[in-house]
Amino acid sequence: MQIEIRKLDGDEMEFMLSNATPAFANSVRRAALRDVPIMAVDEVEFKVNDSAMYDEIIAHRLAMVPLTTPPKGYVLPSECGCREGRCEKCSAELELKAEGPGMVYSGSLNPSDEEVRPVNSSIPIVRLESGQRLELVAIARLGLGKEHAKWQPGIVAYKYMPVLEFDPKLCNACGDCVKACPKDILEIEERKVRVKDLTQCTMCKTCAEACHSKAVKVSGDPTKFIFRVESTGTLPPDQIILKAVESLQAKFEEFPKLVKKL
User: Fold this and answer.
1) 218/202 Cα distance (integer angstroms)
2) Cis (ω within 30 of 0) for the bond into 101?
3) Nearest to residue 88, comparing CAs of 77, 102, 103?
4) What is the rounded CA–CA span in Å between residue 159 and residue 135?
5) What percent of the chain has pLDDT over 90?
6) pTM confidence score
7) CB 3.0-4.6 Å disulfide test: which of 71, 100, 179, 214 passes with 132?
């Protein structure tokens, strides 16, 4: 296999995976969404809530606030020796004290560990009117996306590398396919159709439908995949993929051991 990183900018990443199979590409995608441990609010202790929202609604909103995940220092609650899941090895606390009037934002959460804090400080949580107060302690824990969406580190998707073929015997360079392309990636050069950036093709087949001579054929290469990763900010996108591959490797190593026990 070969990997070519085409873009790595902030929370966004794009790379090409070559000489692979659809099964492997989908395994990487699923592992990135399901098996990468990240921090998220898992429990909330309310002390005062005078707002118009129920405790459960505020707790749900807090759970969906992305938190930064340190590379080391925390373990999954199932792997921790404590019984309550409240020790420093498996949890971190974020305290909130606010009084109205005004909107309470995620930036009001005061973390016990500076490495576990909201990715964005401007996420609205609840509006408080004059005289209303909100006091709570949110407990953040490591978790996996297969357990709840709040533990999904971002969006991971892929597509086949597009393949555009123009039959020279049928194509007369009329330009109908160029005008029809919604991505504007086709052009006429020396009476031939040229593709400016093949990776931008969505394989919508609009160009093939616009070609009256049926000279255009659109397909996908099942050995090359264009991956796009968009992190919530909890982890860098390249770390999401690396941890997903580590998870797959651990499963591959465990599988033969389980087979031998049969």
Assistant:
1) 10
2) yes
3) 77
4) 46
5) 85
6) 0.88
7) 100
